[in-house]
Structures are given as structure tokens and as C-alpha cells.
Amino acid sequence: KLQSPHFQALFTPGLRSVAELFEKKSYELRIAGGAVRDLLSGVTPQDIDFATTATPAEMKEMFTSAGVRLINNKGEKHGTITARLHEQNFEITTLRIDVVTDGRHAEVEFTTDWEKDAERRDLTVNSMFLGLDGMLYDFFNGYEDLKNKKIRFVGKASERIQEDYLRILRYFRFYGRIAEKPGDHEPNTLQAIKENSKGLAGISGERIWVELKKILLGNHVNHLVQLMYELDIAQYIGLPLDGNLEEFARVTKNIQNLCPKPMTVLTSLFKVKDDVTNLDLRLKISKEEKNLGLFLVKHRQELTKAVGPEPLRPYQDFIMDSREANTNSKICELLKYQGEEHLLREMQQWTVPSFPVSGHDLRKMGVSSGKEIGTALQQLRDEWKKSGYHMDKEELLSCLKKL
């Protein structure tokens, strides 16, 4: 029985009210899936999913007669009802069995058998339930696997994968989150992944990108991406066939504690701009992510620190010369990519200075034609740049008299 402070903290007024309603009607209600895994790991869960023996119709009837507001009826055909109590949403799903699966979606039928529902979940560590009294229901040794930091599919790996091929990437994601060391896989799991890797070709890019981003920011990322190439997965998820695995290994080591964006990590696999474009075609990445990838491929080699007392100057000059928004954040990602931890900290503390002279100042000094003003401003900008952006308005204007 679990009685940790993390578990006790879940009992908000909203959850107490929900629990009372279910108890009154004698419907069973338990916490399901990822939240159970987190609680057993001593982590406060971000999202909590609930499972119940009540059907969607029974839940609707119960909530409506108690005057509880229901929101978002999209999940109803899959058995999910979302109720709002005390400013909190509760997502509650009827126990299900998959009747037909096509590797992407499942047609479900409702059940009151907890084990049957656990059986259709992907990994043992995600297949547990927790009663509101703290009692753990674990049909597939998920708790044992969690304690031993093992990632295993529920039942036969190939059957679970064929129900939804995205589970291949979920396996990698949770491996990176839970396993202690790289390479601790069961050989038959890897075999099942290899035999079914082609199934990922039919999964939407958006779903793949959600999982891939989490893998890129988890542990053992170098090991897991190497494995994707060994198991024939890379080609089906938009990665280049000849990815630069040496550069990837180098960069993932550099970047470990620098909180990079997923795209910063991934770009180290890419050799040319087309690799970014092809990834975008397959995964429908955001415009910002695509631009970051293209920026890193273009500048990672030639835009580097200066030798001498001002190593940051080339980066600062680049920002000052750039006409684009968010160049600053791209430069920070470039510094992470290059493993320049010390320079990154300096860059994050640097405020982009404002050029102190305006056209108005020049007019006051008697420069009247627009063309002359433009030329003078450019000359002053160059002087300002040479000074390391330290010259103030007075110094620059006195400089103008000499020019």
C-alpha cells in the first residue's frame, strides 16, 4: 500500500468529491498508467489519468445529476469523460479491450476486467493501477521492473508493437527515462523492434516528433539513436540514411548539462541543409525548429570563438549585424552545440546594446540629406562596433566631426 506524501498531496477537494460520487454508485475508480509509475518513483505526477468500471453513459448520468460540468466530449467514443470540479479537470476512462487494431488506431469495447485493460497497455511500468486507498494493482510485474529499472513490453513485444507501431519509440523514450545504463535490453525485444520497424512508416510525423523530442532530451540518447540506425528505424522517421553518428556522439557529450532544444541535439546528425528539409517533410516540425536546424548546419563550423581577450565577440557581432528576430536564442543554441559552457553563461547575461545615435541627432548637427544621414549612421555603427559597442553618443558624434 502506498502512503507517500506525493500520493497524499493528490487529494484535493476536487478529487475527494469525485471519489465520493463513484463510491456512492459503487463504481470502482483507480489512478492509472504514468501517474502510478511516477508516484512509485517518488515523483509528483504532472497529469493524472483515472480508470473506472463505469461506462461513459453511467458516468455522464452520475455527473449530470450531481450538477457537475462535463467538458470536451471528444474522448467519449474511446471511453473518456472529462469532469470539472473545484477548478480542476478529471479525465476518467472506462476499462477497455482492443477489438481491432491496425498499427495506428484501435477499436475498443468496454470491460470491467482490470487485468484485461492492463494487458492492452504498452510497457509493464505503465500498466499498473493505484486504488484511492493506496493499494497497488500490478498484473505484469511493473513495480518489480521499475525497481530494477527494466523496460519491458506487456506480454509479447511483437504483439504490443503491432497494435501501435509508435510503441517502438515509446520504448526508447522510457528506456532513456528509467534505465540506469545503456545496452540493458532484452534481445527478443530488440528483435521484435527490428522486425516491425517498417510499421513506423505509417505513423504520422506529428506523433513521431512528439516522442523523438523526448528521446533527444532523455538519458542514453547517443546509445538510443545509434540503436535506431542498427535496428533500421532511422529511415522511417525522417532521419538521414547516412547520419553523422560520430558528430552526434561528440555533441551529445558536450551538451549534456546545457538544456539544449531537441533540434540542437538532432542537428548534429545532419551533414547538409537537405537533411533538415527532409526531416521537416516527414515530421512537420515547426518553422522555428526548421530555422534553428538550418542555422546550425550553416554556422556551426565557421562561427566560432575568437582567440584573445574577447572570445565572445564574433557571436556578438553576428547578433548586432543580424536583421532577424531571435538571433540571440539561436546563438545560445550554437554555443550549446559547440559545448562552450562558459561562453554560453556570458552570452545569457549579455544585453544587446542599443545604438546610441539617431538620424535626429545628425540633423541637429546640420546633416540634412537622407542619403548623407544613412552613410554617416553606417560609418558610426562601424566605429561603435570596433569599440566593442562601448562608445556613447558624445564620443560617436565627436568622431563624426573627424570623419
TrEMBL record:
It comes from the Eukaryota. GO terms for biological process: mitochondrial tRNA 3'-end processing; tRNA 3'-terminal CCA addition. The keyword RNA-binding applies. SUPFAM superfamilies: Nucleotidyltransferase (SSF81301), Poly A polymerase C-terminal region-like (SSF81891). Residues 186-237 form the tRNA nucleotidyltransferase/poly(A) polymerase RNA and SrmB- binding domain. Gene3D superfamilies: Beta Polymerase, domain 2 (3.30.460.10), cca-adding enzyme, domain 2 (1.10.3090.10). Keywords: Magnesium, Metal-binding, Nucleotide-binding, Nucleotidyltransferase, RNA-binding, Transferase, tRNA processing. The keyword Magnesium applies. GO terms for cellular component: mitochondrion. GO terms for molecular function: metal ion binding; nucleotide binding; nucleotidyltransferase activity; tRNA binding. InterPro entries: Bact_CCA-adding_enz_type3_sf (IPR050264), NT_sf (IPR043519), PolA_pol_head_dom (IPR002646), PolyA_RNA-bd (IPR032828). Its cofactor is Mg(2+). Residues 29-152 form the Poly A polymerase head domain. Belongs to the tRNA nucleotidyltransferase/poly(A) polymerase family. This is TRNT1 nucleotidyltransferase. It comes from Oceanodroma tethys (Wedge-rumped storm-petrel). The gene is Trnt1.
